[in-house]
Amino acid sequence: MTDTFKPPHPYFVCTAAEAQQMDKDTIEEFGIDGYTLMEVAGSSAAKHLLDSIGDHTHGLYLCGKGNNAGDALVVARYLIQHGHHVEILFISGTDDLSADTQKNLELLQKIRDQDSTAGNLQILESWGDFDANASHTFHYIIDGMLGTGLDSDLRGDYTSAVEWANSSGLPIYAIDIPTGLHGDTGQIMGNAIRAVRT
Predict the structure, then answer these.
(1) Distance (Å, rounded) from C-alpha 103 to C-alpha 153?
(2) pTM, two decimal places
(3) Which secondary structure element, helix H or strand E, spans residue 35, and what is its range?
(4) How far is CA 96 from the centre of its chain?
(5) Distance between alpha carbon 142 and the CA centroid of its chain, in Å?
(6) What is the sign, positive or negative, of the torsion defined by CA atoms of 40, 125, 107, 101?
């Protein structure tokens, strides 16, 4: 019998730096690249979402520029295969996406351009392209805007997107911690997504 209680892995709570270090170690020491990690995270989230919301629904995917957005794009790709109508909204454009997020965006664009059944996919490249009166057309929202690295208050279009999402009345699923929460303290950084599940 040991002196310390060792919780099972699903119950470990990590700081933002520890989570980032685990990703780094997995990539560098185990040789599992970031794109593969993104695929595993996104496919697992998609499975949980299908259990919650089923097939043939309409989702809005709010995306930033980092790997959190890439995870959301993987979710979108899997749910399109289950008849979901997917609208992807990049809050601050598609320039300077993380490398793995860019790969997943290109894959979705290829699916859209080559697959006649992919009419269920729409990609908007800025918050200004979005019709804020369209909440009645969606069944759920995916938060893929910002992950654990946030250390200042939300600003600009991210604040607008969070306010809109929270006031929409729709269930919001955060792929990482909800956008607007500090990864270490849980403090709300100006405003934060109110997710039904993370």
Answers:
(1) 29
(2) 0.88
(3) helix 34-53
(4) 17
(5) 6
(6) negative
Could you tell me the maximum CA-CA distance found in the chain, to the nearest angstrom? Answer: 60
Do 190 and 159 touch, CB atoms closer than 8 A?
yes
61-86 pLDDT tens trace: 999 999 999 999 999 999 998 889 99
Alpha-carbon torsion 110, 112, 114, 117, what sign?
positive
Cβ–Cβ under 8 Å, residues 81 and 111: no
Nearest to 161 by CA among 180, 182, 183: 180
- Cα–Cα dist 184/176, whole Å: 13
* Coil/strand/helix, residue 85: strand
Number of Cβ atoms within 10 Å of the Cβ of 19: 18
Q: Are strands 172-174 and 140-144 parallel, antiparallel or unpaired?
A: parallel
Beta-strand ranges (E) seen in the chain are 58-63, 85-90, 121-124, 140-144, 172-174
Handedness of CA 167, 41, 124, 134 (dihedral sign): negative
Q: How far, in Å, CA of 55 to CA of 84, rounded?
A: 6
User: What 8-state DSSP symbol labels residue 152?
Assistant: S
The torsion angles phi and psi of 194, rounded to 5 degrees, stand at: -100, 90
